[in-house]
TrEMBL record:
GO terms for molecular function: FAD binding; oxidoreductase activity. It comes from the Bacteria. Belongs to the oxygen-dependent FAD-linked oxidoreductase family. This is FAD-binding oxidoreductase.
Length: 445
């Protein structure tokens, strides 16, 4: 029996599926118990219940980062804990476990401020930040984890702890994912950003466009963060007419300088190929979701990624271009700037200059065998092969959609940091209760 203010669901209960369903529809967890937490006390009760019975605990806010297909255990759903409180004088926000970036963006925007949010406003702020968090303005402001001031976290011993810089657990939470406890809220510093110049240019996908973007990234200031996405688009009415049915390359730009210098900076890109469509201009940060235009609807997908010190445009093009073996969306983000600087966050491989990741749609559980259906094992094998061939220096786990092997998780950190994280895991979660994630196993005694 779990006594909570929120709700408890078991398989077969009305509401079980609705509480469990998130953005990722592939490999959904089938827990024995779902605790839809109303607050930190419910999280403590759920953790205590699980630990007493030796059950693993998973945490879900939005389901954008589902890492492990699991049977059984306890799922703590933080969806209802979505409070956001901005302190404009301090330039900070208190963000509860289940709040999505869209709410933080709206609240901060009222005061001319912005959070270190990423391409999709539907992603959960806490889960994103625990994975490091690579935002739209990352080259100027670093990782989201670099902006955390405090966490409230329930650890495996059932204690609710306030964790601040100086506590050994603080650093582990800046990139160590959900391994060390359930974060019930965090305080973050907001960015002094009310507007930006940004948006996108669309081209037909060619290796030349990719190479032109790569060469251009070497010329831009840290105030400009950009990415490129190669996307096979369907011939469907929802797609803007100039892009319909084409394999397009979408160059995405976010620049905090004025519009005039933004236009000047972007100008050389226009000669990369014929511009099929353009959406660039000055915008309030509250419109920043239009830059990447990520899909908002839940679907089934698998993805993998790698951090690169060099981008071989021809090789990257072959992974996801029109004649790729598996229809794939490829994204490359330009790193460097503040991302390359040391910070307390445990994120490794600061020398990487690009992060590349691929995503492929999977057989939709609602329409098995439907259009775009692809077999998960074949897709994962393809993605692993391609990532190995690109020869990256490590992984950025936020862009690793789905289960990661122990070595893929280890490859997200510098080796000595990883050993430190394993030691801290042994201190704070020796039974590995929080293992349904990109798991860092406890160091053996
Ligand atoms: C469309 C899309 C766009 C994205 N864009 C970006 C981007 O621009 N930059 C970037 O860095 N990442 C990005 N991501 C990756 C995203 O940040 C991660 O998938 C992140 O884990 C999502 O967190 P969530 O809470 O929304 O997802 P969930 O699936 O609900 O949670 C993912 C994991 O985070 C952990 N977690 C979540 N909440 C808590 C908590 N309160 N306490 C402890 N652990 C917790 C758990 O391990 C959980 O399994 C994107 C993902 C998608 C699908």
């Amino acid at each position: 029996m779990i006594r909570v203010e929120g709700s408890v669901y078991r398989p077969g209960d009305p509401g079980y599926d609705a509480e469990r369903d998130g953005f990722q529809l592939h490999g959904q967890h089938r827990p024995d118990v779902i605790v839809a937490a109303a607050g930190a006390a419910d999280v403590r009760a759920a953790v205590e219940y699980a630990v007493e019975r030796g059950l693993p605990v998973a945490v879900q806010a939005s389901g954008h980062g589902l890492a492990e297909t699991a049977e059984g255990g306890v799922l703590i759903s933080t969806r209802a804990m979505d409070g956001v409180r901005v302190d404009p004088a301090a330039g900070t926000a208190w963000v509860e476990a289940g709040a999505r970036w869209e709410k933080v963006i709206a609240e901060a925007g009222r005061h001319g401020l912005a959070p270190p949010s990423g391409s999709s406003p539907n992603v959960g702020a806490v889960g994103y930040t625990l994975g490091g968090g690579m935002g739209l303005l990352a080259r100027q402001y670093g990782y989201a984890a670099d902006h955390v001031r405090a966490f409230e976290v329930v650890t495996a011993d059932g204690r609710a702890r306030q964790v601040t810089p100086g506590d050994e657990l603080f650093r582990a939470l800046l990139g160590g994912g959900g391994n060390f406890g359930v974060v019930t809220g965090m305080e973050i510093g907001l960015l002094p950003v009310a507007r930006l110049y940004g948006g996108g240019l669309y081209f037909d996908s060619t290796a030349e466009v990719l190479e032109a973007w790569r060469a251009w990234t070497e010329t831009v200031p840290d105030e400009l963060t950009s990415a490129i996405a190669m996307v096979p688009l369907p011939d469907a009415p929802v797609i803007p007419e100039p892009l319909r049915g084409r394999h397009v390359t979408h160059v995405r730009v976010a620049y905090t300088g004025d519009a005039e210098s933004g236009e000047r900076l972007v100008a050389p890109l226009r000669s990369a190929g014929e511009v099929l469509m353009e959406r660039l201009g000055d915008m309030p940060y509250t419109e920043s979701h239009t830059i990447s235009d990520d899909p908002p609807h839940p679907h089934a997908y698998a993805g993998a990624g790698t951090l690169l010190t060099e981008l071989d445009s021809a090789a990257a093009f072959a992974v996801a271009g029109p004649s790729a073996e598996v229809p794939t969306v490829l994204q490359v983000r330009h790193l460097g700037g503040a991302l390359a600087k040391p910070s307390p966050a445990v994120i490794g491989h600061r020398e990487a200059r690009y992060v590349l990741h691929v995503v492929a749609g999977l057989d939709d559980p609602d329409t098995p065998g439907g259009p775009g259906a692809q077999d998960v094992e074949a897709v994962r094998a393809y993605q692993r092969r391609q990532m190995d061939a690109l020869g990256g220096v490590g992984t950025f786990l936020n862009f690793h959609c789905g289960p990661a092997t122990e070595s893929e998780v280890a490859a997200a950190y510098d080796p000595d940091v990883y050993q430190d994280l394993r030691r801290l895991k042994a201190t704070y979660d020796p039974a590995n209760t929080f293992r349904l994630n990109h798991n860092i196993p406890p160091a053996s005694a």
